[in-house]
Amino acid sequence: MSFADKITMLMSRPGGDNVQKDDVPWWMRYAGRGLGTVGSFIAIFAGIINCTGLFTLNVSCLIAGIWQMLAGFIVIVCEAPCCCFFIDYVQVLSDKMETRPYWNKAAFYVGLALPPFFLCFLSLSTWFGSGIIFATGVVYGMMALGRKASVEEMRTSAATLEAGLGQPTTAPRANLVANEQPVSFTGLPLPN
């Protein structure tokens, strides 16, 4: 594959033609990608600042800074592979991450962002760097929830529930309480 082919392939994204993700607004898709890209650069820079904890003999902040830089690099690889096209197989990893559901990306980014908070909680650079990666995970979590129902759908659902005509059909286990059965038919416990 030539260099020009690599550039063309990298620039052909974002927003693949996944049928599963069609109900997500375009601005939210770009917001997640932009927040992840910009936030990962900020996380790398804030991780460098956290690594100055070595001078104050704060090893936990040093480890948090290294984790933050690694998390920022991983998010750049997943969200903006054109920023590191010089590394082989970045596009393969990015394409694999792009085919995953939004809730997987949300859980992954939130999981990447949490350890620096536990290691170096009082550092402002931890809050900015890992906080933006966490916010990217929150945006992808909101994308996984999908669009809100229209006003008419919400009114008819509320009227149906208020009239007692049934359970909501959107929740897969909404009728569990209506099917409740007693555990056994034994009597009351005997007093001592």
TrEMBL record:
Topology in the lipid bilayer: Multi-pass membrane protein
One CC-aspect GO term: endosome
Transmembrane segments: 35-57, 69-90, 102-119, 125-145
GO biological process per UniProt: endocytosis
Keywords assigned by UniProt, alphabetized: Calcium, Calcium channel, Calcium transport, Cell projection, Cytoplasmic vesicle, Endocytosis, Endosome, Ion channel, Ion transport, Membrane, Transmembrane, Transmembrane helix, Transport
Domain of life, source organism: Eukaryota
Protein name according to UniProt: Calcium channel flower
